[in-house]
Each structure stands twice: as C-alpha cells, then as structure tokens.
Amino acid sequence: MAMPTGLREFLTSRRAAIDPASVGLPGSLVPRRTPGLRREDVAALAGVSVDYVARLEQGRVGVVSDQVLDALSDALQLDELERAHLRALVAPKSRRPSRKRAVRAVARPSIRALIDQMPNPAMIQGPRMEILASNAAMRTLLTDWNAMPPAERNIARWLFLAPEARERYADWEAVAATTVASLRAAHDPRNPDEALERLVGELTLASPEFARYWADYRLFKHTHGTKKFFHETVGAFTLNYDSLDIPDSGGQTLCAYTPDPGSPSEEKLRLLLSWAAQSPDGTSDDRAVPRERNDADGVSDRNLH
After folding, report:
1. Which of 30, 75, 194, 289 is deepest in the core (most CB within 10 A)?
2. Structural contact between residues 233 and 288, judged by C-beta atoms closer than 8 angstroms
3. What confidence score (pLDDT) does residue 298 get?
4. Which SUPFAM superfamilies match (predicted)?
C-alpha cells in the first residue's frame, strides 16, 4: 500500500474537527456542505488568501515560512504533536527520500530481564507497535503473545482482529482510536516505512473500524494515563500506564501498568495474577469465579474478601 503524502488529508481533517462558532466565526445563511471550517475560514483566521490555502492543500506551494506555518497551526488549533507533523509534511523533499527497510526489531536482553523481574504487567513495543517482549503479568492481562507467530505480535493488529481484545478492554473504542492515532504519529512523511505501510494496508482491508479511524487522521503519543480492563475472573478494574522511551533502541518503548495502591483494582490485579500463577498452563482460569461486568473499582466485589 502506498502511503500518501497526507498533507491534504491532514489539513482537511483538522478543518473538519473545528466548530466555526468556537473560533468566533458568525453563523452562515448558506448551509455548510461539510462540518467544520471552510478554506475561506482558515484563510481569514491565518491571514492568508483562500487561493494559498487551496494550493497548500494540493501541495502546489514551495517553501512555507515559519510565520505562515505558525498562523495556520493557530487557526487549526493544532497541538505540539500536530504542529511537528505539519512541518514534516511541508518540509522540502530530498531527491531520494530514505525508505526504512523492514528489519524486525529486537529487544535488548537487559530490558527483557528488567520486565521479567517486574511484578505488574509490562511489555516492550517496537516503533510500529510490535510486541517485542512481555512479562507473565502482561500476558495474563491481555493475551499470550508468546503463543503467536512473531509476525502477528502487534498490539494494533491484535486489537482490531482478535475478538478477545474487545472483551479485555472495557473502553475498546477509546483504546482503538488512540492506537490508530499513535500509528499515524509514528509515520514520518519524509521517510517511507515499508513495514508500517504493510500493517496499515492489512488492517485497512480487514477492519472497517480501523479504516474509519485512520481516515480521521488524528495524532496521539502514549505517555501516561489510565485504561480500563475486564477479565472474567475478577471483573472490571483500572490500571495506570506509563510509556517510557528506551534510549538507543530505534524507537522502542517500555510500557508498564500499575494499579493505585490500596484500591480495589490493586486487589483484583493481585488475585488475577495469583490465579494465573496457580493454573497448569500459566494463564488464569476464566471459570474460577464467574463475574458480571461492573464498573472498575466498583462495589460489586463480594468474591474478593
């Protein structure tokens, strides 16, 4: 699948995401055919001509000044990640852009040993969301990555193609949207990436939901936050996540999950990992304690104490 430059798609997606009233534009007597800002709205807000905005979206302008880029970024309410992406999209192309070879990333043995010693779920991801290593707690929380062929160990691929993913994530839609946005952010327009292009092509064809999220052209970088999980053994619970860049690794990250100390989620995670450790195959027995789905850290914990 050939990855387009994305300039037109990016700019039109950002225009569509803005409510004209939120930027002080008066209502129009003529119904808008599409949501969001029109080219003339962006031109007025950025102080450039409508023709310039049209030519920019079509990639028919030369070098764009920093002043114009800042004005357009302000008009489109871009965050720092989006501003950097816009600059990459309009950066002068080299005569022969470098193309990343599809070389399989490998986690350093020392980092593998580090996560194996961690009691809570942790994994190492490559720049295209490959699962390069995971500890036993992580495999219990989501799925047994080690049982998959190496080519299929990818969090985005599993998220959209494995039915169990929709059960494991209590807020699957939110996780799916940010995962696709992270893949978008991982793409450097100046350096084509064969492996990333193949992954996007596969998921676009296999999952209409992925295709829809990809077309939204959102950008996101996982740094820290919370995620809600569900496991038949213990019900719903919430974990904090932190994604840490690994130096000198070619874009690998260490993702660690922890519960709030003393919370019901901490107790549920402890019980889940305990049951998994006691099962013959090292995974939790989903039939051990039948549970109904409930809110994370809720009150329906009668089997926990």
Report:
1. 75
2. yes
3. 46
4. lambda repressor-like DNA-binding domains
CB 195 within 8 Å of CB 100? yes
Can you say whether residue 106 is alpha, beta or left, with left for phi > 0 and alpha for psi between -120 and 50 degrees?
beta
Tell me if residue 277 falls in helix, strand or coil: helix
At 119-152, the pLDDT tens digits run 999 999 999 999 999 999 999 999 999 999 998 9
Strand order across the beta sheet in which 224-231 lies? 131-134, 122-125, 253-258, 235-245, 224-231
Q: Over the Cα atoms of the chain, what is R_g?
A: 22
Give the architecture (CATH level 2) of 7-90.
Answer: Orthogonal Bundle (1.10)
Distance CA 158, CA 42 (A): 39
Beta bridge partners of 100: 193
Q: Annotate 117-162 with DSSP letters as a single string.
A: T-SS-EEEE-TTSBEEEE-HHHHHHS--GGGS-GGG-BHHHHHHH-
- Residue ranges of domains in the chain: 7-90, 109-278
Interatomic CA distance for residues 193 and 102, integer angstroms = 7
Cβ distance 85 to 10 under 8 Å?
yes
- 148-207 pLDDT, tens digit per residue, is 999 899 999 999 999 999 999 999 999 999 999 999 998 877 777 888 999 999 999 999
Instruction: Identify whether the C-beta of residue 42 lies closer than 8 Å to the C-beta of residue 76.
Output: yes
CATH number of 109-278: 3.30.450.180
Q: Which of 137, 136, 124, 207 is nearest to 166 (CA)?
A: 207
